[in-house]
Design brief:
By secondary structure, the chain is an alpha/beta fold. The chain is 35% helix and 19% strand.
Length: 288
């Protein structure tokens, strides 16, 4: 019968819920989820839409922890019915109050999963399979990174490169705010200078997002892109952290620097919002 594989948990200290304990303590979670000598590490996916995107993804689900009053909803979910058997994931069912005790806060969505990080693709593999890239430099806010992923996927990005100073794409907050799109966008860590040099040599149109007054407007960048004479060029949009923005060396290494015209007194936008505007203008329209 559906749900026969479920294991009922009655003790918050049961080792089978170890992946989900104290999600509200960042230092503890970083240590628990980190890669080790025999493991690539794991991450947490929280909420229904996120888990529906996790199950068919390339990441192997380790366990799903669900409140008892939400179990029927999970079993009726198409992605669970189609994909859970290939993962061999544990299905753990708990009382709603016990769920809150385990994770360390009120989990109103009533469901959370853990999944292996697996082996990350090489930067060259991501570039080779992409035509529209997002490159992130120094983004240190996980929620901004998650929102950036969500917007990028919606607007046609098919690859993401993160410099070594950008925060963890698989942090719980980044995955949650991305609504699981962080799991559908192929991503790799890559050094900025080397990457931009390689893209330039390969004919990519690289775009540095900056509020600098001397930068092209988004409309001017679109005109420049349309006159490249190379059919549909590959485009990489480079974004930095709010506050410091992109480094000067990164801006100089790009084909163009682009700004978004704004009202007087407003100097910048949230990085995910700014990236969405530039993606909408410079990327090809994504298929429906």
């Amino acid at each position: 019968m559906p749900g026969d594989e479920a294991v009922v948990i009655t003790d918050a200290m049961d080792p089978r819920v170890g992946d989900f304990r104290s999600l509200n303590i960042p230092g503890y979670r970083k240590a628990v989820e980190a890669p080790g000598p025999f493991s690539s590490g794991f991450f947490i996916a929280e909420g229904w839409l996120t888990i529906e995107r996790l199950l068919p993804s390339r990441y192997r689900t380790r366990a799903v922890l669900v409140a008892s009053n939400r179990l029927d909803r999970l079993l009726e979910t198409e992605s669970w019915q189609r994909h859970h058997q290939r993962h061999g994931a544990d299905l753990l069912v708990v009382d709603p109050d016990l769920l809150n005790e385990i994770v360390g806060f009120a989990m109103h969505r009533g469901i959370v999963a853990s999944a292996d990080r697996g082996v990350a693709p090489l930067p060259a593999q991501v570039v080779g399979r992409s035509r529209q890239l997002i490159i992130a430099e120094g983004i240190n806010d996980a929620e901004n990174l998650g929102a950036l992923c969500r917007n990028a996927v919606a607007l046609g990005a098919d690859g993401l490169l993160l410099d070594p100073t950008t925060c963890d794409l698989f942090s719980r907050r980044a995955v949650r705010v991305s609504v699981g799109h962080a799991l559908t966008l192929e991503a790799a860590r890559a050094p900025i200078a080397e990457t931009l040099g390689s893209l330039s040599t390969s004919g990519w149109f690289t775009v540095a997002c900056t509020p600098a007054a001397g930068a092209l407007t988004v409309a001017q960048a679109r005109e420049r892109l349309d006159t490249t004479g190379s059919g549909q060029p590959k485009v990489a949009i480079v974004v930095g952290a709010e506050g410091p923005g992109l480094t000067e060396s990164t801006i100089e290494a790009c084909s163009v620097a682009v700004r978004i015209p704004m009202a007087r007194g407003i100097d910048s936008l949230n990085v995910a919002t700014a990236a969405a505007i530039v993606c909408h203008s410079l990327f090809s329209e994504p298929p429906n």
